[in-house]
Specification:
Number of helices: 7
Number of domains: 2
Shape: rod-shaped
Largest sheet: 5 strands, antiparallel
CATH class of the largest domain: Alpha Beta
Low-confidence stretches: 1-6, 59-63, 263-273
Number of strands: 5
Order of helices and strands: HHHEEHHHEEEH
CATH architecture of the largest domain: 2-Layer Sandwich
Structural class: alpha+beta
Strand content: 5-15%
CATH topology of the largest domain: Beta-Lactamase
Length: 273
């Protein structure tokens, strides 16, 4: 009965041996054609060849079937060891790749932190510059508002006119009170409209010359809205206003002085006599 089970056992081993080489080929394709993989494939092919030789023995080949079976028993543990070595090699490679990925991720994280810190520093610097600029703009606006207040509320009439068209660019409240015009009416005037006709040409010629700060070009006669004539002295200074070449003038009303000086002169002469 034992002898009857041997052929079946031998047949099963032969079938398994024939299935092993295709599976080994599949493993080499999945995991790559590495040296260990090819060794496994070669050993499995050798095992299949031994099983074929054992099958051909009844056909007259002079091989001992027990030798073939002994070789099979020898190769099984060897193949298991080689397979374990192959799996170990795959896991080591996988671990190496994972460690390399961890190292790269750590380096990338450090670079990201450094870059983030640089961006945060740059953002802080930008915010500081924006804050300083806003502060500067606020101070400039306050300064402009302060100068505008000094201009508007100056007790002496002040005018700014364009040197090209002689149109008024700015005027203060004292000028409106002195000449008697409304704000809208003053906007429609030019500088020549304030002068009496016989002084307009001299005024235009004077505008063609540059002025020095504090220069007083004599006494002029100006029209008021009520028709009266005011005698004024003008302190003039050229500047750039609203992107235009302009002139700032400060008006001194000397009407009363001009009227009293001719009267005072004879009194002094009488006293001297």
């Amino acid at each position: 009965m034992l002898m009857s089970t041997v052929p079946l056992y031998s047949t099963i081993l032969s079938v398994l041996a024939c299935l092993i080489p295709p599976y080994a080929l599949r493993l080499t394709r999945v995991f790559g054609t590495k040296r260990v993989g090819w060794v496994i494939f070669a050993v499995f092919v050798l095992l299949a060849a031994l099983q074929l030789i054992r099958a051909w023995h009844p056909m007259g080949l002079a091989f001992n079937p027990n030798l073939t079976l002994d070789l099979l028993y020898l190769f099984v543990p060897v193949l298991l060891l080689i397979g374990m070595l192959h799996i170990e090699t795959i896991f080591k490679e996988r671990l190496r790749i994972e460690e390399e990925e961890k190292r790269l991720c750590a380096e990338l994280e450090v670079q990201v932190r450094e870059r983030t810190a640089q961006l945060d520093a740059a953002n802080d610097e930008l915010q500081r510059e924006i804050s300083l600029r806003k502060q500067g703009e606020q101070e400039l606006r306050k300064s402009k508002e302060g100068y505008r207040f000094l201009f508007d509320e100056n007790p002496l009439p002040m005018l700014i006119f364009d040197l090209q068209g002689l149109r008024f660019l700015a005027f203060n409240n004292a000028a409106l009170r002195f000449y008697g015009f409304s704000h809208a009416e003053f906007k429609q005037l030019t500088a020549t409209d304030l002068f009496v006709p016989d002084e307009v040409q001299r005024f235009v010629a004077d505008c063609a010359r540059s002025t020095v700060l504090g220069q007083k070009p004599g006494v002029w006669r100006h029209h008021r809205k009520n028709g009266s004539i005011a005698e004024v002295e003008i302190t003039a200074h050229d500047l750039v206003y609203a992107e235009s070449q302009a002139r700032l003038v400060l008006i001194y009303d000397v009407t009363s002085r001009q009227r009293t000086e001719p009267i005072a002169a004879p009194q002094e002469a009488t006293q001297a006599g």
